[in-house]
Amino acid sequence: MSLKLYNTLTRKKEEFKEIKKGYVNIYSCGPTVYNFAHIGNFRANIFADLIRRYIKYKGYKLTHVMNITDVDDKTIRDSKKENLSLKEFTEKYTKYFFDDLKTLNIEKVEVYPRATEHIKEMINLIKKLLEKGYAYKADDAIYYDIKKFKEYGKLSHLKISELKAGARVCQDEYDKEHVNDFALWKFWDKEDGDVFWETELGKGRPGWHIECSAMSMKYLGETFDIHTGGVDLIFPHHENEIAQSEAATGKKFVNYWLHNEHLLVDSKKMSKSLGNFYTLRDLLKKGYSPRSIRYVLMATHYRQKMNFSFEGLNAADNAINRLDEFMAKLDNIKGDRHNPKISELIEKVKSDFEDAMDDDLNVSIALSVMFDFMKKINTFIMNDKMSRKDAEKAIALMYDFDSVFGILKKEEKKEEINKEIKQLIEKRQEARKNNDYELADKIRDQLKEKGIILKDTKDGVRLEKITTSK
Ligand code: AMP
Ligand code: ZN
What we know:
Layout: E1 4-7, E2 12-15, E3 23-28, H1 39-57, E4 61-66, H2 73-81, H3 86-103, H4 119-131, E5 135-137, E6 141-144, E7 168-169, E8 181-187, E9 197-199, E10 202-206, H5 208-220, E11 224-230, H6 234-249, E12 254-260, E13 263-265, E14 268-269, H7 280-285, H8 290-298, E15 306-307, H9 310-331, H10 340-358, H11 363-382, H12 388-405, H13 410-433, H14 437-449, E16 452-457, E17 460-465
Parallel strand pairs: 3-4, 3-11, 7-8, 11-12, 13-15
Antiparallel strand pairs: 1-2, 5-6, 6-8, 8-10, 9-10, 13-14, 16-17
Helix pairs in contact: 1-12, 2-3, 4-5, 4-6, 5-6, 8-9, 9-11, 10-11, 10-12, 13-14
Bound molecules: adenosine monophosphate and zinc ion.
């Protein structure tokens, strides 16, 4: 089966087709770094990580970009409260954000562009919009004229013809009750203090929405494959990104728009403004493990609202314990009573897992496929119907799944990978000894795919790790 994704633009599950064969470009709206991210934000990050990991699992190469919003209304407001320069303030929270991503085993993406480092690109984009008549200058800002973009509203399904003309909104965040022209470039006022750029469009700072248009197109091109974010970003943020980008280039901006539903607390969105949030650090302090937190945020399908609860977190703890016990049991199997049913089972389970994930990343079903597999293997183990070789096959499958889930214990994984790499290197040495250079080269390529480069020196083989994740 091929990958199907639910596209907010068409409100349909569509078959995924990449623009450039074998290569996928993804943009995910990242954090506004004015505070600790809460676990609702991390639901969005874990969803973006899941799609990234599954795209890789399917064999695509990718470039994934996640912006860091380090200048906007909120960062300016709160840096003043903390008496720090905007840079000191945002760097502090950016670092916390990266630490938290690591704790949650969220893979690093290829590029994390910061808004303050892309002012030139934003100015160029705004200039284009002015030239083409999609933007105009007012006293306090340069605005986007939404009436000029005929398709405005196509993502959030708004009826622009029913709106009053001429109303404007300068602040970055607003709701559907305030569908108005929005600010692209905000002229300096004294509230901004020392936060401004002197540019050919005047002294000021960018609006939030232009940041994402400018940075995504810089790294991924004028049309790219996938854009992700939480449902709260559909309007106005993503609607405005489309309006800005498509008006400037005359091309379709993004093929697949993917939005994760919210993490709720007592049926309300977890958010900083409502104060009903937990940070990752709050939960770690209470003794929960990062793996259980990752599990709980990942295990519900991304398009379903999910209530956060401590019962849910305790259930995730149990699931993680079961996983650990299972992996430990497999590790201890020593026998040689081969069971042909295991290969058959593995093949079936792998295909069920892929069917679930191909169906708009149905992670809940994919997880139940894995737990079902564990149950069946446990029965084989109990009846002593498994050899070491069979166990290794089962372990390899678990790691295949985990390249997507990211919930197994890390040390075990490393050991397993090292073991596999060691075996490949030995096999290659053997092939060279037998003058089978074709096989030796094949193995060298296999290792390269795993991020290991072999250098043959006169003192033997030397290993080099490739550091980029591409
Ligand atoms: P922010 O830092 O508020 O701009 O949000 C960063 C990301 O987190 C965006 O993609 C939001 O849509 C997402 N987000 C914020 N709150 C929640 C929530 N309660 N549940 C899921 N995603 C959220
Ligand atoms: Zn964005």
